Amino acid sequence: MALEEYAGDMNMCCRCSLCKFIPLQMVKGFEHANVCPSISRYNFHYYSGGGRLNLGAVGLEKGFQYTPKYLDAIYNCQMCGACDVSCKYGMDMEVLKPIQELRIKAVEDGHTLPALDKVVDRMRKTGTMVAGKSKRSAWAEGLGLTDATKQKVDVLYHVGCLTSYDKDMQKLAKATASFSRRPV
């Protein structure tokens, strides 16, 4: 769905703050009342589910102004869904899906998460997110593993970029591959 399809939900947000806390009837004390990691860190409505809904509603109405602060607010969300669950405890509206669509819109408009731009650029150029000088499969040398690109296998283990290139992480890959070769 597109962001525009959530305009009703975004405009329905009344800034009640349900998205920030566990359902109020269940709060036993202030120390563990926050449900939203962003609110726990920033303690400002702008970084809550409701704050992000407001950003989306205003963007649809007046146009999107992708300032660094705006991008910081929409990308500093772990997308855990806690705001959505807490909001639905008292309201019948979507919170998480419009936030996802807000991010999609930002990317479509050419405003990606700046912290990941280098990683995405490296992946486009090299096919990996990790700058590695060795062969991707060097960790598996000497283990006698079957090459799944040449032969059918029963188990396929995707090691991933970091584990393929990081010498310390390669120990984990080797141990996992050796474990999967043991008879049951």
Question: Can you put this structure into words, describing what you see?
Answer:
By secondary structure, this protein is mostly helical. The chain folds into two domains: 3-112, no CATH class; 117-180, no CATH class. It has nine helices and no strands. Helix 3 packs across helix 6 (96-108).
In short:
This protein is an all-alpha fold and 184 residues long. The chain is built from 9 helices and no strands. It starts with 6 loop residues before the first helix and ends with a helix.
Proportion in helices: 40-55%
Mean pLDDT: 88
Oligomer: single chain
Order of helices and strands: HHHHHHHHH
- Globular, elongated, flat, extended or rod-shaped: what is the shape? elongated
Which features does this protein show?
184 residues, mainly alpha, 2 domains, 9 helices
Write the layout of secondary structure elements.
Layout lengths: L6 H6 L24 H6 L6 H14 L5 H8 L6 H9 L5 H13 L5 H13 L34 H5 L1 H14 L4
Helix pairs in contact: 3-6
